[in-house]
């Protein structure tokens, strides 16, 4: 697994990352994709998503604000991505909160081959059939360690699984990597989960090693969040934090990453 | 009415605030909800909005970019909120500008019990049947003082009414509170009205005193807007202002509020 | 052509700029419209877009995330704008990337009289029937100089044409103006094309000279982008750049523009 080289690689390849995502953080997803070196496209009409996915190097599917029209387009886009062999990164936002989301997520797993699932523990737990107490789209508690959950979900779903948390875990079902970086303020702004999926997809669109891409994407967000916090002054609040986070993502490179990342 | 304690209370309770809102400021609404201590969720599919509203502690309905599908979902969500007894904060964006908006708003008032209406004077005036000259979604002139309008609308609509302006007014039909804080630059960025509704909803989701919550929410925005302006340097424009506003909202607490607020 | 006076004029007239635009940059479009002195409205329901366009002084049509419902509303809004005689600024985002976009764009040109087309070279080239290799919504290469393309497209489409690039070109089919300002970082954040269309529309809603409005709008973005870059410190990334860009747009006036712009 060579994460370090991916930072230069994504800037060189500028992979087109096709997103079918939510209306809340769609702008952040586009800007983060650009910040790391990728090229975002957000087409969602069912009439063009297959064509667009065929042009892309990676696809992000995010359930944040799905409705039926969006869901149908996600199936078409996902199947086109599968046909082309590009990675599909799935962010099961809010799965477990309502039957609608949980059912659509399970249905989706049966129709599209997912490469990487990225969620918080309760979402991933719900995805593999666990009973969760969620509160909307934010993380609830689950009766299993996050590390165990990452491995189990990766095995059961036959994907790479990325679980965000105080320590993040990335597993392909056999290996598991923990990421100790991060900052609690990452949970105080919306969209840091969604944009982590964009980072993973941008890296995965630049390499065949989607496990390395997942570790690189998740750790870029956690390390950038940690570095951004250190750059705050006394009277800075979450507006400034959000700006510094975007700065740090755009400034990240292999050297900064290697020096700052704490993998276990 | 104890507004001061609500700042600690919302952070402790982290109320889930379900929004059915517009695509323009949806990200700001989510971030402001987080900044004050609440937890935002933006689900809009008619198939899940009732379930999500049942999980929530408050509901925001914002007419900014409604279409028929959104409107139908708003009815379902609003009725679920009514059934659960959680507060419904209604932001009648642009009502008075087109017959479509005005008719839908009046129809909505007949189908869902609203707890708090928050708008500018022309929107609220249109809502109670006044003739207004609006310009899109921004404030037009009305032939009644804002204070009078707040009281009259509260009585006629049987809700708490919040009217944003140079002085903001909050009334429950008997009492009326004016808020002298604010800054003209709050009108130079989009979404400060929408996010005020999010603040009110977050507070209202943390207390039974929705009048106090409305005063706390409206005055938080006006005071934060005033404080943000004071933190600008000479060459700062509205980009920096917007960031400082978000900072000030996230830094607001009972002490800062008590020291800075000017109620009349 | 008097661009300089337009900065005061737009602030005085506060033209209502109706947008039917994409979900990615809709917030930026609203804030940029406000920053330059206009008043944005983003209504998209087919039931009200004609009424709203009738209230407006300019209309922006942006293809970023179109679907069939949005497309139908764009036709209704565009025809209402034509009837009232207000300028229609068309941003053919991603045209050339998928047959869906290209066909809809050509269909749209037959149904609505466009005043100004603003795009990158590959989009405009596709619009006039050229064969392009696009990568999603970002610029691809075309086998014609941008200056030539601006003139040719203006003649063929019978509109003013604005082509963004290292040097921007604005043509009405007989005259052509080049704008040498700009910065490569304008391509590292999403939405600087979309918001340029908002600037052009705000100016065009304040004058009958839509050619001057197009030069003023395009050059405001390029000059603001250049000035924003100069204000960055060593560790600033694209988050800070985006904020400074918004600052510079909001601070722009006739004097700053005249001193900084480099037209050829």
From TrEMBL, chains A, B, C:
A biological process term (GO) from this entry: thiamine diphosphate biosynthetic process
Reaction(s) the record says it catalyses: 5-(2-hydroxyethyl)-4-methylthiazole + ATP = 4-methyl-5-(2-phosphooxyethyl)-thiazole + ADP + H(+)
EC number: 2.7.1.50
Pathway noted in the entry: Cofactor biosynthesis; thiamine diphosphate biosynthesis; 4-methyl-5-(2-phosphoethyl)-thiazole from 5-(2-hydroxyethyl)-4-methylthiazole: step 1/1
Annotated SUPFAM superfamilies: Ribokinase-like
One Gene Ontology MF term: magnesium ion binding
Amino acids binding substrate: 42, 191
Cofactor(s), names only, from the UniProt record: Mg(2+)
Keywords (A to Z) from UniProt: ATP-binding, Kinase, Magnesium, Metal-binding, Nucleotide-binding, Thiamine biosynthesis, Transferase
CDD domains: THZ_kinase (cd01170)
Family affiliation: Belongs to the Thz kinase family.
Name the record gives this protein: Hydroxyethylthiazole kinase
